[in-house]
Automatic annotation (TrEMBL):
Start and end residues of each Protein kinase domain: 1-79
Transmembrane segments: none
Lineage, broadest ranks: Eukaryota, Viridiplantae, Streptophyta, Embryophyta, Tracheophyta
InterPro entries: Kinase-like_dom_sf, LRR_Rcpt-Like_S/T_Kinase, Prot_kinase_dom
GO molecular function, one term: ATP binding
Name of this chain's protein: Protein kinase domain-containing protein
Length: 79
């Protein structure tokens, strides 16, 4: 999907699967698990390859070091 073009179904499914893998990672791949409640379309960013990046997940941040770790995992390790 280029700018202004409609996404084809394989692209849409790929984006949805990427989001699902990202949420699963946040819930099960991070200790302690991260559970957000603000997953909506405007909080999903797409890179130039249409790889979804989860943002603004309403994360509880107990410390600055935890914030950096969670931010890193939530944004860059969504596959």
């Amino acid at each position: 999907g280029r700018q202004g073009d409609m996404l084809r179904w394989p692209e849409r499914v790929g984006i949805a699967m990427g989001i699902a893998r990202g949420v699963k990672f946040l819930h099960t791949g991070v200790v302690p698990g991260v559970f957000g409640n603000d997953l909506k379309a405007e909080n999903i960013l797409l890179d130039h390859n249409l790889t979804p990046k989860i943002s603004k997940y309403n994360l509880p941040m107990p410390s600055k070091s935890m914030a950096v770790k969670v931010m890193h995992n939530a944004i860059y390790h969504v596959r």
